[in-house]
Write a structure and sequence with these properties.
The chain starts with a helix and ends with a helix. About 75% of the residues lie in helices and about 0% in strands. It contains two helices and no strands. The chain has helices at about 5-85, 115-130. The protein has one domain. The radius of gyration is 42 Å and the shape is rod-shaped.
Length: about 130
C-alpha cells in the first residue's frame, strides 16, 4: 500500500508537466503564426519596394543619358561659337556686353525661325481665301 500513494503524486506531477509543455507549445505556435503573418507582410513590402526601385533605376538611367548628351551639346555649341564670325569676343559672363560695344557684338543665334515671314504668308493666304 505504500507503493500506491507514491505513484499518485508522480502522475499528477507528470500531468502538470505535460500541461505546461502543451501550453508552451501553444504559445510557440501562436508566435510562429504571428511570425508567418509578419513575414508575408514583409515580403509584400519588399516586392513593392523592388518595383519602386526598378522605376527609380529606369528614371535615373534616363536622366544619366540626358546629362551625358549635354556634354556633347555644349561641346558643339562651343565649337560653333568659335567658328562663327564674331564668336563672342565682345561678350563677358552671363551675356554682359563690354564697355563701348553694342548688341551687334553678341554671337549670332544658332537657329533662326522666320516668324515675320510666317505671319506674312498667313496674311497672304487669308486675303486669297477672302477675296
Amino acid at each position: 500500500m505504500s507503493h500506491r500513494p507514491s505513484s499518485i503524486p508522480s502522475t499528477s506531477s507528470s500531468t502538470t508537466i505535460l500541461q505546461t509543455r502543451i501550453n508552451q507549445k501553444r504559445t510557440e505556435l501562436e508566435n510562429l503564426q504571428a511570425l508567418r503573418a509578419l513575414s508575408a507582410q514583409l515580403a509584400t513590402q519588399m516586392s513593392t519596394l523592388e518595383q519602386k526601385l526598378a522605376t527609380l533605376r529606369d528614371g535615373t538611367e534616363a536622366v544619366a543619358e540626358v546629362l551625358q548628351n549635354w556634354n556633347g551639346v555644349l561641346g558643339v555649341l562651343g565649337m560653333v561659337g568659335r567658328t562663327l564670325p564674331g564668336g563672342g569676343e565682345g561678350v563677358q559672363a552671363e551675356g554682359q556686353v563690354r564697355d563701348g560695344e553694342g548688341e551687334g557684338s553678341l554671337p549670332p543665334t544658332l537657329v533662326r525661325v522666320p516668324v515675320q515671314q510666317r505671319g506674312q504668308e498667313k496674311r497672304v493666304e487669308g486675303r486669297g481665301e477672302g477675296g
